Amino acid sequence: MEGGPGGGGEGGKPGPPVRLRKRKSELYRPTPEGAAGRGSAVLGETLGLGLCAVVLRLLNCFLVQTSFVPDEYWQALEVAHRLVFKYPLPVCQRGYNILNAANYGYLTWEWTAGLRGSLFPLFFAGIYKALHLLSRDDVQWLIWLPRLAQALLAALADVKLYSFAKRLEDGEAAKWVFFCQLCSWFTWFCCTRTLTNTMETVLGTLALSYYPMGGRQPGSRWKCLALVALACLVRPTALIPWTPLLLHQFWKEPQKSHLLLHTCLPLGLVTLGGSLLMDRLFFGQWVVVQLNFLKFNVLHNLAAFYGAHPWHWYLFQGLPVVLGPHLPFFIHGCFRAPKGHRVFLAVVLWTVAVYSTLSHKEFRFLYPVLPFCMLFCGQSLRQLRRWRPPACACLLVANLLPALYTGLVHQRGTLDVMGYLQGLCQTTPGPAPASVLMLMPCHSTPHYSHLHCPLPLRFLECPPDLTGKADYVDEADRFYADPQEWLREEFSDTTSLPTHVAFFNLLEPDISSFLAAHSYTRAATFFHTHFPQGRTGSYVYVYERESKVPLEAA
């Protein structure tokens, strides 16, 4: 008979020791050190990526010192400045664009027609109001703080794109997607600008990070849809790239009626109701800006007033330029990506196809699909393996050159001239208070958001015809048709002549006689671009009128 542990064996002698089998139940297993540290490792990785993105985007912000399109000022900062800084202006000369004596700023025709929602400028108005309450509303703070806020939002979007790519596949793919995102020249050029397209892209990327993909990490449907709705309030076109994704999710949803009635309908009502209330307070009347936006841009196609392009422009010019050096990697990634990526390729193709049906086309309209393109560029780098180091080096250098050139050199004159005009705000009033006439294509420069002083300004306007006149000609076209005649009619009373005139160098031969006849001499010159087009020249000139003070008799 065998003895138990410590018991006696045959003949009363102790038997061999009995070894107990080690339990393998998870209930009794101690927590491994690796599992315990996994959460802190993920947190450390996220913080490291976030810090990297923040530092890069802040540097990005300060290395972009050029202008892109007027909307980055006139659809955001100028509206915010007028909302916050309302105090009486001094007596202005006849014809200057001041709405009334209590409104310190100017609203373009889009706002009087109710085409723009108030949410986006309210974001910057909050920043301006905080600076005003803290007595820190210096012009440099007003210029840079909104852009720094955009830079931080762009950094958040970079990290969220990485987290989505990691959830979509794995950390290896996400790393290369993150790299492609950070070195994209067009992202560098746009992401710190105060454009509605920039905020649309940020909110779209945040929504993408919560997009339900199924599996172990299904995402958050509510957060995703809420961010998409918010992006649509900023710019209704945000719905275009999200249409394939939302339809794809709806197709896969087993409880479709529950999704529509308990998620989409409440969220849609809250979003539309909030938009109506905000715009009611802003415009002083009930306005459905999304409907007005649709009528103007799609049904009436009035945006073509600002330029029209052939249907294939996005395919052969728009998308290749926006992708830049990423283009071959994007094409390669489209062929090598897993089947689960097809829906994101559909987003890119669908957006390009929809925008191609509209006459008016711009590079920035494709910016919201650029993060989707980075998913395929990252897949390409992951697949290259042996050629990856030289490919990354080429991609980095090839993007660095256009990023620095477009950020520091191309189209900087219209911002530099505002720095010069700021000096007129501090000039001691003399016999003739300072005033400025901008003879440039309409909205070439910012306005009071880059001056922050009641300096009388006049610029050429170019609103589209909203009345249906067949022979309609805007003020800018009338001026450029005959500059001398326009100036004679506008300033028949010489007492209303401005003290300073700013214009592109191309215009100088056409108005030189007027300038000489009224004692204007060149006071400053600012480089603008190496590639002048149309009415835009290589330099911005500022002419100042010599004051004629009568000499006292000896």
Give structural attributes:
single chain, 554 residues, mainly alpha, five-stranded mixed beta sheet, 5 strands, globular, disordered C terminus
Outline, from the CA principal axes?
A: globular
Mean pLDDT: 87
Order of helical and strand elements: HHHHHHHHHHHHHHHHHHEEHHEHEE
Instruction: Estimate what percentage of residues fall within beta strands.
Output: under 5%
Question: Structural class of the secondary elements?
Answer: mainly alpha
Strand order of the largest sheet: 2-1-3-5-4
Q: What's the alpha carbon Rg, rounded to whole Å? A: 30 Å
Largest sheet: 5 strands, mixed
DSSP, total strands: 5
What portion of residues is helical? 40-55%
Q: Uncertain runs with pLDDT below 50, 5 residues or more?
A: 1-11, 24-28, 88-101, 549-554
Give the terminus-to-terminus CA distance. 142 Å
What does this protein structure show overall?
The chain has 554 residues and is mostly helical. It has 21 helices and five strands. A five-stranded mixed β-sheet has the order 2-1-3-5-4, with helices on both faces. Helix 15 (342-356) crosses helix 16 (370-384) and helix 20 runs parallel beside helix 21 (508-517). It is globular. Mean pLDDT is 87; it is low at 1-11, 24-28, 88-101 and 549-554.
